[in-house]
Design a protein that fits this description.
This protein has 7 helices and 5 strands, in the order βαβαβαβαβααα. It has 197 residues and is an alpha/beta fold. The chain is globular and about 55 Å long.
Length: 197
């Protein structure tokens, strides 16, 4: 069974919209894959300030302990879901920084992106679609865009409003389709990686 990381892309104090969404996403993998929520609050890295070339091109790098903890965790998964808010027409600085610390841990592994905000996080998603190939990740074609009105219908425990959950083309149906796509890519890419080792 595939191992999937669901990353909370915000570290704001108080109630975070990204957190219940990430918990809903993780619950939706039940019976399909092993999903674990990764909270960037648990990985308080400084902004990338390593000397020399960027991490991907620096085999002699020496990450700080907090960054190494993140790197050691990320490599354990077969695929990823990034749940991102939209700040000033882009993703959050903390999520971008977490990606910047990656060197080869995401190579040829699939990433699904879920944005939320007044425009459904569309520009945050677009930013991540440009950034992720730079660390070797494969961004799956489908994305999920959650308007504030939908995001507010996910409770703190990660349960989507029952009426919304029943809609045939609603957010749960869209998420389930995205999960199926991610897992297809995770399986195909894992097979390809194993053939090349």
């Amino acid at each position: 069974m595939a191992k999937i990381a669901v990353v909370i892309g915000s570290v704001r104090e108080g109630a975070r919209v990204s957190e219940p969404i990430a918990r809903w996403v993780a619950k939706s993998f039940a019976g399909k894959a092993e999903a674990e929520v990764l909270d960037l609050k648990d990985y308080p890295m400084s902004f990338l300030d390593e000397p020399g070339a960027p991490p991907r091109y620096n085999p002699a790098r020496h990450p700080k302990p907090a960054a190494q903890k993140w790197i050691d965790k990320v490599v354990q998964f077969d695929g990823y879901v990034l749940v991102t808010p939209e700040y000033n027409r882009s993703t959050s600085a903390v999520l971008k920084n977490a990606i910047d610390h990656i060197d080869h841990q995401m190579d040829d592994k699939p990433v699904a992106v879920i944005g939320h905000g007044s425009s459904g996080g569309a520009q945050a998603v677009a930013t991540l679609r440009m950034v992720l190939p730079g660390v070797g990740a494969v961004v799956i074609p489908t994305a999920l865009f959650l308007q504030n009105s939908v995001a507010e219908k996910v409770d703190a425990g990660g349960t989507l409003d029952a009426e919304l959950a029943k809609e045939p083309y609603g957010p749960q149906a869209q998420l389930d389709g995205q999960i199926d796509s991610l897992l297809w890519y995770a399986d195909a890419l894992k097979t390809a990686r194993e053939k090349n080792t």
